[in-house]
Design a protein that fits this description.
The chain is an alpha+beta fold. The chain contains three helices and four strands. The protein has one domain: Glutaredoxin (3-Layer(aba) Sandwich). The chain has a four-stranded mixed β-sheet.
């Protein structure tokens, strides 16, 4: 599973990365987690509010730290 967290390095972005990593580890899912900080790259995804989360090329979240149950659902699908 390829996951990108879009954001310029704010606390919410860091918390989002940590949350995704924790949930993936708890569920035993192997992920490739990447941080995208370049504003042009973020804009290419159409995300105007960070942090944004892209899974396998699809934007699944934008704006604020996602709820834990939402993150868990990403790994259950």
């Amino acid at each position: 599973m390829d996951i990108k967290v879009l954001g310029t390095g704010c606390a919410n972005c860091k918390n989002t990365i940590a949350l995704i990593d924790q949930v993936a580890n708890a569920k035993g899912v192997t992920v490739h987690l990447e941080k995208v900080e370049d504003l042009r790259d973020i804009a290419r995804y159409g995300v105007m509010s960070t942090p944004g989360v892209v899974i396998n090329g699809k934007v699944v979240h934008a704006g604020g730290v996602p709820a834990r149950d939402k993150v868990e659902a990403w790994f259950s699908a």
